[in-house]
Every structure is written in structure tokens, then in C-alpha cells.
Amino acid sequence: MSKSQPIFIYGIPIKDDRGKLKNCQLCGAKFTMSVKEHQCKRCKRAVCDKCAPNKAQVQKADGLSKKSHRLCNFCKDESDSLKRFLEQYKISFNKDSFSQQWLQSFGTDTAKAKNDFLNALDDAKLSKDTNAYDIFKAKLEVVINDIDGFVNYSIKDFMVAALKNVESFRQKEVVKTSILRVAGTLLLLYPQIGYSHEVVLITYFLLCFASEASAYILLTAIYAHILPSQLYPKANTKYDLVNENAIVVGILRDALQVDSNDMSVIKSFLSQKLRCYLVTLSINLFLFETTFFIISSVLMSGSNGYMDLLAQMAVLCQLSNQEMQKNKFNHEETELFMLRSLRTNQLSVLYKQTQNCDFESYKKVYITTRSDSIKVDNLNLSARQSMIKPDMQKVSEINQKLQEQVDRRDLENKKLNEEIIQLRDKVKQLQKENSILLSQQQNNDSEMYKIKLHEMRIDNSDLKSQIEQLKNEISKYKLQIEGGAKEKATKQKTETVDSDYENDLQEISQFKQKYEQQIRNLKKQAEEKKQQNQPNQIQIDELKENYENKIKLLQKQVIQLQSQDNTEEIRDLKIQNQQLQKKLEKMKDERNKSELIQQKNDEIELITELNEELTKENQRLAKQLRDLKSQSGASSAQQIKVLEEQNKLLELKLEQYQILIQELVNIIDKVKYQKQKQLEFSDMKFKQKEDLEDVKMVAEIRTVQTQLLKGMLKENQAQISDLISNITQMRQVLEKSKSLKL
Ligand SMILES: [Zn+2]
Ligand SMILES: [Zn+2]
């Protein structure tokens, strides 16, 4: 597009980000080979497949596109709701719809407006200062074309839809004629306002909701009651908006409770951009929905409209605060975010909050700087006088009560939210512990089985190498046999076989010798033990004999002493006797112990016998070998056969072994599976599950409770805001009636 950006109507430049971003601008998904990047032809966002499944015709500079283009989900929702809005309120160019409510807030209605407009048209013919009007008329065509080409996609959709009752070839002419009558009359009657392109833009927007007459009255009201004369195009002075900036900052601080640390970035944004937002009434800076919300609330505020506009600016800054911090001084990025992402529901919530703000202190600043150069005699204020005076005392009492309720609910809500957060943390903790336990168990099991498997594999390879060895031997034998058949030498072969057998025999006899040596050693050890035990036994026997002799002696003495009738000595001796008998008892125990030793000796003897048997077995084997040796020569083939059979057996065994290993592996898998199952049904797991279930239930109940409370809170807030707007209106009436009385 080679068309240059218009310099006179404020708008947001929308960058074409296609191919420059790594992630989807709606869902944040990373663009890859499978996640393709698309561009929404309406908002120009770079989006993924999932976020842009729809295609539709889109508005272009030269009208509706012929082809269908990809539309992101955000735009799809927005354009659908725009259509619904237009239908529901029967909105059409040069037709009264919302204008009726707006006129009411200035104390007039469509009938009066019609009358006033006809008078104004007549008056305008008599106007002598036509300078502003002449400039306006000369530029109108170009400006309307620019508006057509450069309003943002959302406003464009709206304007086109509002004109759908007019044949397309007539549309531009119809728009031009109406704007000329409405804005032209204003400029002829109030040349002190002066001409700017924004006048055309505002008139165009108003005409989408109003007849020419209503649009004229509303346009007059905007310049007479809303925008201060410092912002008139004709003012042309460098009015620096210090007061306005201060008011916005004050609302941010007092009503929206924005941290003072965040204020510097907001202040920078305001000082750069506030003028554009005010002189255009923010038309073309946001999506249609947002723009409508701002303008409607401004017009509904009547002569408080300017304060309302500043409060709306505060709300916009608050909502874009994070984005401002992120972009610091790149205001264009922040504005693009505002255009694409600000939603009217967010706006309305914060806007209500600003209504609690005491505007009186701010208003004084504004009123003292305001010029009263225009007299707007066609605004009929009589409607306001008829309003009933409200009982302000009662209203404020109800207000207070409602506020208290809201505060209480807020507190309860906060508590519930905290509880939910705690419960969520607990659930998370439990889940974490559970997964740790599970992974530990699995690790342990698999470690053990790995070791076992490894061991079995080693065994397996041992067997394999044994078989390999045997195979080698067999092939060696085969070679020898073949060689022997060709040459004469069965003898030679026999000799080698013989020598092999001799070697075997030698090995066996060495083994036998080693075995005999071991047996000898064992025998020797047994003998030594016997000898160690024997003196013990002799000593015990000797001692026993000694004691027995002593007892006998003592008994003799007792008898002797008894005969001597020496009772005392008898008693002593009796005691001695008893003691000696005890000692004897003890010695008998010792004897038992020595019997145990005897038992051990018997065992040693048994082992010795076993060894002897083994020796015999060895001898038998040696004999067999000798027999084999005698059969040699002719029976080599037989030997090979035997070896081959052995080989087969071993291979069979290996197979079995492998099957066994496979079975073991299967068992391991089975055990693993069972363990896992066990774990799932184990008490611990079950309990945890129950806990989680409990926590979830409680959290659900809390969520439902919270939602209920939130609903009640919303209702209360709505009641409050209703009351507040009532109060505001009543105050206005009061003021007006006061000023009228004066
Ligand atoms: Zn996406
Ligand atoms: Zn889009």
C-alpha cells in the first residue's frame, strides 16, 4: 500500500508482524513446521492454525474484499458481537438510536433538537465569519476519503454496517451531505471553535447514532460543555494540559489505587498522548466496543463529560499499566496493545470505581481555566428542573450500608481465595510426593533385576565359550581323522590321542594327589584336635579321682569324728562335703563338654571316610581312562561321537538356559507390573488419593461459594453504582437549579 498515513486524524499504526515473531500472538504457541503461522487479515496479528480457523470477507480501503481471508478468533468474536449490537439497537446512519439517551442528559430530546437545528440552519445563513466553514468545505472530500481509508478495522466495520441501508454508490455522498449540514452549521454559528479534521471525525461518529438534528445538538454540547476552549482547534495556543494530567494522576491514585512507583511511566504517556485522546474523544484509538463505551458514558455525564473523559483516560492507563512498564517509552506498542486487547468489561468495572472518586476538588481546577466564550442558547434546561429533589441523607445512609456489605464480602472472598490457594498447594505437594515414591520404587526394582540379568548373561556367555571350546576340539579331532585317513597314520593319530589321554591321566593323578594331600591335612588336623582334647580329659579324670579320694577320706574322717562325738567338726566337714560334691557336679558337666568334642571328632572321621570314597572314585575314573586308552585308535571316532553328543547336550542345555533367561525376564516384567499395580492399590496411595479427592471437593465447594459471593457482590456493586449515578444526577439537578435561581 503506497498510500501515506493521514497526518490529521489520530490513529494507531498497525504493524505487519508476519514472519517476525516466534510465537502466536493469541495463544503463545511456538511456530514450527507443524504449527504454521498465519496472519489475521483484520487485525494483522501473527497467529497459529488453531487461533485462526475461520475465513471471511474483510473490509479494505476500497470496500469489502472479494476473497475470503483468514480471521483470528479474537476478530471473529469481535465482528460477530458488533453485528449483534447493530441489530439489537437498530443502529443506522442519520437515524436516532442512542442519541435519545444522550440528548436527555443535556436536558433535551429529539423533538426539541429538530426544532433547534432548523433554527440554527436559518441562523447560519446569516453568518458573516465563514473562514472556518470555508476551510472545512474545501477539505471535506479528502477528509472523508481518509476516514474511510484509515479508521481502524473495528470502527471501519461499524461504519460500513451503519451505512448498509444506503446503496453503496450513494454512501459517500450521503455521508458528505450530512456532515456538511451538521458540522458546517456549527462552524458558521461558532467560528471561535475553528476547523480541524477531528470535527469531521466526531460528526461522522455521532451521525451513526443520531439524526442530523440530534448530531448537531450533541456536537454543540461537546464543544460547549465537554471540551474546554483551550482544546478548540482555533485556540492554537500551546496549552500543556498540566491540569488534565494532574486530574488523571489523581484519579489513578485515589480511585484506582495505582502505586506511585508506576506513575512515572503513566505520566510520560499522558504528557505525550493525552491531547490526541481528548480532541478526538478517543474515536479511532480503540476497538468499536471500547470507543462506544467511552463516548456514551461521556455524553451521559452531561456537563460533567470532560471529567468523565479524564476518568476514562485514567482507567485506560490503569488497564495498560503493565504494558506501559514493559514498553517504557515506546508508546506506539502500548497503544497497539490498547487497540487490540482492551475489553469493555474490564473498562466498565474500573470505570465504576472512578465514580466513587470525589471529583469536586478536581473540577475546580478545570472550571477556573474554562472559557465561557460560547453561549449555547439552544440547550433547553427546563427538563432538569422538573426532577424531584432526593433525600440526600437517606441516600448516603443506604450507600454507606451497601459499601459496608461490599467490604465484608470482599474480605470473605479474599479469605476463601487464600484457602483455595492453600488447598491447591497441598494437593500439589501430595501429588509430588506420590510421584517421587513411585519413581523410587521403580528404580529399586529395575536396579535389582538388571544385576540379576547381568549375572545370568555372564553365565550364559561362559557356557557359550565352553561349547565353543568343545567345538574347536571336535573340529581338531575331525581334522586329525581326515589327515590320518589320507596318510598311513592311524598310528600317529593314535599316538596323539594317546598322548592326550596321558595328559588327562596326568592331570587326574595330579588332582588325586592334591586331594590326598588335602585329606592328609584334614586327618592331621583331626589328630591334633584329638590330642588337644585328650590332656583335658586326662586332667579331668585325674581331678575327679583326686576329689573322689578326698571325699572318701572326708567321709572316713566324718565317721571317725562321729564316733568321737565332735558335732561341730562334723558340721564343718559336712559343709566341706557338700562343697566338694558341688565341685564334683561341675566336673561332670565338664565331662559332658568333652563328649561334645568327641562328637566333633566323629564328624571329622566321617569326612575322612568321604574323602576316602572320593579317592576310590578317582581311582575308578583313572581305570576308565586306562580302559579308554586301551581301546584307543579304533575308537577315536567313537570318542568324537561321545564328544559330539556331549556338545549337543550342552547346546540343549544352553537353549534351556536361554529359555530360562527369557522366562526370568518375563517374570521380572510381570513382577514389575504387579509391583506397580500393588502400589496403585497400596494403602498409602489409596489414602493419598482420598486426601486429594477431599481437598478437591473442598476447593470445589469453595469455588462455588466464592462464585455465589461474587455474584452477590456484583449485584451490590451494581446497586451502588445505580445509586451513585442517581446521586450524581440529583446533584447536577441541584446545581443547575441553584444556578438558575441565581
Ligand atoms: Zn494461537
Ligand atoms: Zn484478528
From TrEMBL:
Q: One Pfam annotation, family name?
A: FYVE
What highest taxon heads this organism's lineage?
Eukaryota
Which spans are transmembrane here?
Answer: 178-195, 201-224, 276-300
Q: Which residues form a coiled coil?
A: 399-667
The alphabetical list of record keywords is: Coiled coil, Membrane, Metal-binding, Transmembrane, Transmembrane helix, Zinc, Zinc-finger
Q: Does the keyword Coiled coil apply?
A: yes
Residue ranges of the FYVE-type domain?
Answer: 18-80
Q: Which PROSITE patterns match?
A: ZF_FYVE
Q: Which InterPro entries match?
A: FYVE-type_Zinc_Finger, Znf_FYVE, Znf_FYVE-rel
Q: Name one GO molecular function term.
A: zinc ion binding
Q: Does the keyword Mitochondrion apply?
A: no
Q: What is this protein called?
A: FYVE-type domain-containing protein
